[in-house]
């Protein structure tokens, strides 16, 4: 009898404690989802494969990015299936604010320096003032310093400019997609037929397989014209592996270049013919300044 | 005179009843701290909602997980994405009661033991936590400090970062709750 009373008393108490929690949770629906809930980690890295993603390092974070593309897989055993012909790009990206990032890089393909400004114009969010997509604007320029012999080319003719709107949506916690309308202006092109102005549209996705492993892909469709006729669209498929402060991205792509001016209008490889470059991006984040 | 005394007495009763009612806040503070030789991780959350019923000694908390602010962007991202999975489990909650509670709460800081269910990452565990309660200037001050082991809440820490994240995390709770108006109009 006493035991029964004790049990009843206990369960009544447990009931009451949950009641208070319920009261707390129902009392303030306004404050439980009070502010804008900005969607984070649409993509794991600032790059997807070839393409940049809507992500930026965040305020006070310096990102060091190492990118490699080996030679084509179909170049045979003599070249160890491409491992003998690597191209490399090193770059730094620094988040001035959570929205604004400056970046600079150097790749050995055509001895190219590049610099970019990336700005998160809109951020996907839920709650008050919900936003369905993230939009990041990217402006980059590239300068090739390759010697051309005599007569040497002017500085202006070595420059290329790229403008992109990166539009992304994290559809679920596992799946994110991105659309990239692109405009590239090249001050100087190799042949008379080639276009100085190239328009392209890209698409990319990320599907998480586990918490730290994801499948990725990106593709660029160059809008019809002389450039589209003589070059191929860039395709990449890969995986993202995250380990603490590093993100490893391993991929296969038909483009060897790692900046927009190379992989969008100058891709020659035929993916389905085995002109596939194995490559990786490795990034390491350093906190330069605390956020708080 | 007699009438006046009765009035004063009933007023005092009413006031004390008021003072022993429910207290709540929506801006409570919860901090946590993980210390390892490699790095210290700390985060603060100032959007904690809490309610304490001083007539029954019951306590309830709800903690929006995404509101934890870290020093590093990446830590905050990993916390939400990889560890507590805030999309799936947006809130941590606590529902419990002060052990051996006898109203009214005396003046001055009172050391108490609170026992109840702590739910983090969808895992509910019964815990007992020491803390203090104090009525000061019509507000209720609540303080508590306790240890939480991520593994107890199925928060998996991969081998590669195991040296960076402590096995047990120190949690600090500090809040100032205001009395809840007895009859709350419902919208």
From TrEMBL, chain A:
Pfam families: DUF5777 (PF19089). It comes from the Bacteria. Residues 1-16 form the signal peptide. Residues 43-286 form the DUF5777 domain. Keywords: Signal. InterPro entries: DUF5777. This is DUF5777 domain-containing protein.
UniProtKB/TrEMBL annotation, chain B:
Pfam families: YceI. Residues 1-19 form the signal peptide. It comes from the Bacteria. Transmembrane segments: none annotated. Residues 44-177 form the Lipid/polyisoprenoid-binding YceI-like domain. This is YceI family protein. InterPro entries: Lipid/polyisoprenoid-bd_YceI, TTHA0802/YceI-like_sf. Keywords: Signal. PANTHER family: PROTEIN YCEI (PTHR34406).
């Amino acid at each position: 009898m006493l035991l029964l009373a004790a049990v009843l008393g206990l369960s009544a108490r447990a009931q009451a404690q949950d009641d208070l929690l319920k009261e707390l949770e129902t009392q303030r629906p306004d404050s439980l989802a009070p502010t804008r809930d900005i969607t984070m980690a649409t993509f794991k890295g600032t790059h997807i494969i070839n393409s940049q993603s809507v992500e930026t390092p965040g305020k006070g974070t310096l990102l060091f990015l190492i990118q490699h593309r080996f030679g084509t897989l179909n170049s045979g055993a003599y070249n160890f299936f491409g491992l003998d012909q690597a191209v490399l790009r090193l770059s730094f990206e620094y988040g001035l604010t959570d929205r604004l990032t400056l970046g600079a890089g150097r790749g050995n393909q055509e001895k190219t320096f590049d610099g970019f400004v990336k700005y998160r114009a809109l951020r996907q969010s839920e709650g008050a003032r919900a936003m369905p997509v993230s939009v990041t604007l990217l402006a980059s320029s590239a300068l090739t310093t390759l010697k051309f012999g005599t007569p040497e080319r002017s500085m202006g003719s070595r420059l290329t400019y790229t403008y992109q709107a990166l539009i992304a949506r994290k559809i679920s916690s596992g799946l994110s997609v991105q659309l990239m309308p692109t405009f590239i202006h090249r001050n100087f092109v190799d042949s008379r037929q080639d276009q100085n102005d190239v328009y392209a549209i890209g698409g990319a996705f990320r599907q998480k397989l586990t918490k730290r492993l994801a499948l990725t892909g990106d593709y660029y469709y160059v809008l019809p014209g002389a450039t589209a006729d003589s070059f191929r669209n860039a395709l990449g498929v890969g995986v993202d592996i995250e380990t603490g402060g590093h993100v490893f991205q391993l991929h296969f792509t038909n483009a060897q270049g790692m900046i927009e001016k190379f992989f969008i209008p100058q891709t020659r490889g035929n993916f389905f013919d085995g002109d596939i470059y194995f490559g990786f991006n490795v990034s390491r984040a350093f906190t330069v300044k605390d956020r708080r | 005179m007699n009438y006046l005394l009765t009035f004063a007495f009933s007023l005092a009763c009413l006031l004390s009843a008021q003072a022993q009612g429910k207290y709540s806040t929506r801006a409570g503070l919860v901090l946590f701290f993980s210390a390892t030789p490699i790095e210290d991780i700390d985060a603060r959350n100032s959007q904690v909602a809490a309610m304490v019923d001083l007539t029954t000694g019951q306590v309830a908390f709800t903690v929006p997980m995404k509101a934890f602010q870290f020093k590093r962007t990446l830590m905050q991202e990993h916390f939400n994405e990889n560890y507590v999975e805030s999309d799936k489990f947006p809130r941590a909650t606590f529902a419990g009661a002060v052990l051996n509670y006898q109203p009214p709460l005396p003046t001055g800081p009172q050391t108490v033991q609170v026992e109840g269910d702590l739910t983090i990452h969808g895992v509910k565990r019964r815990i007992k936590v020491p803390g203090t309660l104090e009525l000061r200037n019509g507000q209720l001050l609540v303080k508590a400090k306790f240890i939480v082991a991520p593994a107890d809440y199925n928060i998996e820490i991969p081998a590669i970062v195991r040296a960076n994240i402590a096995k047990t995390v120190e949690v600090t709770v500090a809040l100032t709750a205001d009395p809840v108006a007895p009859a709350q109009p419902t919208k």
